[in-house]
């Protein structure tokens, strides 16, 4: 019996008419779409899908098991006992994909800061294994935290499933070749930035330097989160408080009049509610850069060179483990230039990326099979 998937139903989403509809469909971060899409891409799934409540996920209802794609749910910001999938009435096998941690640093001592409710949830999920490791995590740092909690026998380090959207076994080489085939002017003219968070005042100068790269270019600023940026990009700026507009102006766009901010975002930015469209648009860009790991991943999986500016343990862990082109954002606290970006990408070891990706794809396949989950034809092709 096939496994069902829980969470976002990326195959039946509709265009939202306001921010509340966006929240109910996309959980206020369009980046979540990417790893849900990837989970559906790599597994043969039952047509039956569940939301976060997991109501009906039981043997009595002939459910074969549940796959739960997860994000950076390990940290002080989330108590999985009330914010995570409801495992209370689940009596079928559970497989967790892509669980990651989010802290300001990569110190293993952070395990003490994980809410007790989250620890209980993780142990419950581990108990719902069909016999082996059933929690796939994004990197070594998350594994070390779970090991400190006594869960190492339930955890496998696979990276994020978004690593396997593109079926090519030489993706890194293709990215590097595309980069080298473009002139400096072509790279400059086709650049795209993944928008950050205006509340991160420590990154304000860095974000300002990124915005400078796309000034005069339409829809080259990809917004994923937070709420008010999504509203501005989506044309719902009337609902954004003036105080927030002032905060955004102060942090990022001091040269733009306050009353023109909504127009700036409508012209320069975009929010994707469809992963295929997101990938398609990124495939037309020459280069993508920014602090959003899944925005960078969308570009890479679309075959476009990209560079992630790591801002916390979450982005650093993913980039390091999957060998994604990256640099510590702190190195460019006062801003990053176009030449800096090109130089950082040129130092990327694409051969190591391709070798690592093949290894991780085979590891993910073994993890799925050991849990009784059938890999899709797409996943099997990535493993070749």
Largest sheet: 6 strands, parallel
Overall average residue pLDDT: 94
Q: What order do the helices and strands follow? A: EHHEEHEHEHEHHEHEHHHEHEHEHEHHH
- Tally the helices: what do you get? 17
Q: Report the uncertain regions.
A: none
What oligomeric state is this?
single chain
> In what order do the strands lie side by side in the largest sheet?
2-1-3-4-5-6
Number of domains: 2
Strand fraction band?
Answer: 5-15%
End-to-end Cα distance: 26 Å
Shape verdict: globular
Number of beta strands: 12
Compute the CA-based radius of gyration: 20 Å
Percent in helix: 40-55%
Structural class: alpha/beta
Organism: Halomonas organivorans
Domain Polysaccharide pyruvyl transferase: 75-309
InterPro entries: Polysacch_pyruvyl_Trfase
Protein name: Polysaccharide pyruvyl transferase domain-containing protein
Key descriptive features of the protein:
alpha/beta; 12% strand; 384 residues; Rossmann fold; 6-stranded parallel sheet; Polysacch_pyruvyl_Trfase; single chain
Describe the structure.
This protein has helices at 19-26, 31-42, 80-83, 116-127, 140-148, 171-181, 184-189, 204-214, 227-233, 242-251, 261-268, 275-283, 293-301, 313-322, 338-346, 350-370, 377-383; strands at 3-6, 45-50, 66-69, 94-99, 135-137, 155-157, 191-194, 221-222, 269-270, 287-290, 306-310, 326-328. The strands form 2 sheets. The chain has a 6-stranded parallel sheet with strand order 2-1-3-4-5-6, with helices on both faces. Strands 9-8-7-10-11-12 form a 6-stranded parallel sheet, sandwiched between helices. The longest helix is centred in the last third of the chain and has 21 residues, at 350-370. The chain starts with a strand and ends with a helix. The chain has 2 domains: 3-164 and 357-383, no CATH class; 171-348, 3-Layer(aba) Sandwich (Rossmann fold). The chain is α/β, with parallel strands linked by helices and 384 residues long.
């Amino acid at each position: 019996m096939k496994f069902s998937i829980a969470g976002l139903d990326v195959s039946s989403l509709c265009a939202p008419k306001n921010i509340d509809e966006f929240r109910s469909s996309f959980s206020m971060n369009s980046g979540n779409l990417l790893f849900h899409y990837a989970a559906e891409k790599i597994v043969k799934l039952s047509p039956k899908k569940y939301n976060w409540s997991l109501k009906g996920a039981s043997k009595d209802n002939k459910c074969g098991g549940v796959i739960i794609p997860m994000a950076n749910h390990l940290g002080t910001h989330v108590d999985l006992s009330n914010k995570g999938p409801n495992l209370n009435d689940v009596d079928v096998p559970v497989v967790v994909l892509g669980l990651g941690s989010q802290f300001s640093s990569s110190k293993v001592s952070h395990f003490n800061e994980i809410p007790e409710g989250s620890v209980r949830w993780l142990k419950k999920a581990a108990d719902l294994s069909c016999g082996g490791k059933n929690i796939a995590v994004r990197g070594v740092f998350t594994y070390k935290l779970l090991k400190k909690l006594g869960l190492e026998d339930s955890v496998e380090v696979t990276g994020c499933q978004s690593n396997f959207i593109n079926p090519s076994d030489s993706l890194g080489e293709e990215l590097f070749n595309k980069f080298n085939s473009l002139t400096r002017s072509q790279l400059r003219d086709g650049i795209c930035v993944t928008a950050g968070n205006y509340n991160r005042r420590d990154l304000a100068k860095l974000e300002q330097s990124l915005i400078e790269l796309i000034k005069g270019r339409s829809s080259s600023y990809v917004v994923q989160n937070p709420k008010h940026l999504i509203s501005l990009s989506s044309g719902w700026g009337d609902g954004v408080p003036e105080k927030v507009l002032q905060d955004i102006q102060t942090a990022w766009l001091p040269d733009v009049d306050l009353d023109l901010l909504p127009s700036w975002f409508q012209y320069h930015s975009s929010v994707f509610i469809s992963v295929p469209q997101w990938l398609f648009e990124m495939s037309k860009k020459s280069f993508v850069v920014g602090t959003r790991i899944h925005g960078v991943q969308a570009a890479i999986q679309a075959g476009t060179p990209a560079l992630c500016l790591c801002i916390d343990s979450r982005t650093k862990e993913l980039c390091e483990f999957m060998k994604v082109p990256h640099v510590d954002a702190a190195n460019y606290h006062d801003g990053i230039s176009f030449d800096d970006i090109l130089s950082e990408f040129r130092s990327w070891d694409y051969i190591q990326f391709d070798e690592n990706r093949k290894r991780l794809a085979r590891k993910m396949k073994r993890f799925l099979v050991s849990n009784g989950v059938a890999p899709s034809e797409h996943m099997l092709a990535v493993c070749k």
